Amino acid sequence: MTLYHKGGEEQVEAAVAPQRAKGVRVELRSAPYNRSELREAAASLMGRSLTIDGQLTSVHSAGARSDGSGLLVEGEPLRANDTNSGNGRARTAEPPVPWTGTVTGAPAPLESREQDAPLHSGGMLLRQRYKGGPICTSGFVVTWPQRGLDYLMTAAHCSEAGKTWYAGDQDIKLGPVSDRSERYDTELIPTHGGFLHNYTIWSGQPVYRQSQQLLNVNRAAHSYVGEYLCVSGSLSGEVCNLKVAEGKHFTRYKEFSTGTEVYTLKNTGGGFTAMKGDSGGPVFSRNLDGSVVARGLISAGVIGAKTETCSNPAANNSPVECYRHIYVTDVPDVLNQHPGMRIAN
Fold first, then answer.
1. What pTM did the predictor assign?
2. What is the percent of the chain with per-residue pLDDT over 90, rounded to a whole number?
């Protein structure tokens, strides 16, 4: 066995002594960088632009060489309209350590609402603790070039500013939450910086079910009374045949000090539309090409004459309140509050 290390010769010798005593041949070699230095350098490159073999790419993979001498980097070719940041200058990374790179396509992870791999999508499960705690749903991915960051939208009543979230059942922390608006019941969860974006939402069945798929978001638009929309909460899955029954009006939530502006969606089919934990999920209409138009976020349930319950699949199927009719917020209004923010390429 060959073990590369940087400094700490006495500690390394002491650490390998028990293995040598068992007859394992361990050869020690000096390395220019330690694991922490290379991990930090690799993390700083993710999503940044880097010229590899004369081609401008967006870095999607980076890691340490086994001998501690530098990094191995992979990048996906950048499209022409992705080469500039909000200030109009190309933001090309300058790796702080030696590196070699390869031009490859970005990986296509096997993912789902509960195992959503970076880059994250709307409609995924959000948890406030690793595999536990309060639950909500991500809405839409937005990019704010002026800050050089991508965000996930969700409902502001899900958490306070400064809180962090976990991506589904994974040990991947997102946040901290910023830019909360009680009027629009919306908050932003920063995910990453750079030129690599992913304007998609989960549709189909809810968490822990097989028939889930990603849909591309191509724009945002206001809703109007009489049209039919779909929602996609992480716990209830995709539900359509939802009619916009009332135009924008103010309602008051006990969590907020001001009124929240919402539409009312009424379920014209069977079953329930959403349950607690679907808050923040995407509200959308479908295009003929399979893409979707962002309309709003799931905000609250309309309470009827009696409380109905459903089984929460993300909490051991424990009973939770569920609703046929819901209130939803308006995504274009939120975008207008943040000049330059966009929800699609």
1. 0.71
2. 72
